[in-house]
Amino acid sequence: MSAKNKHPQFSISRALIYAILILGALASVLPFAYMLMTALKTYGSATTNNFWPWFPLGDEALQWSNFTETIETSGKDNQWQTFLFIRYFVNSVVTSLAIVAGTVITSIFAAYALTHINLPGRNLIFLLILATIMVPNDLTLVPKVVMMFQLQWYNTYLALIVPFLASVFGIFLIRQFFLQIPRDLFDAARIDGAGHLRYLFTIVVPLSKPAIVTTALLNFIWAWDNFKWPLLVTRDSSMRVLAVGMQQFLVSEGGTKVQLMMAFAAMVVVPIVIFYFFTQKYFTEGVITTGIKG
Amino acid sequence: MASRSAELSTMRASRRSSVQLWRRIQEVSLGYLLLAPALILLLVFEVFPIFYGLYISACDWRLSCVQFIGIDNYIRAFTEPDMWRSLLVTATYSAIAVPVQLGLGLLLAYLLFQKIRGQQLFRVLFFMPYITSTVASAAIWSFLYNQDKGLINSILTQFGFPALRWLSEKTGVWQMLVQPLGIELPGWATGPSLAMIALIIYTTWVFVGYDIAIFLAGLGNIPGELYDAAKVDGASGWTLFRNITLPLLSPTTFFLLVLTVIGTFKAFNHIWVMTQGGPVDATTTTSIYIFKQLFQYNRYGYSAALSFILFAVILVLTIAQNRFAGRRVVYD
Question: Is residue B120 assigned to a domain?
Answer without folding.
Answer: yes
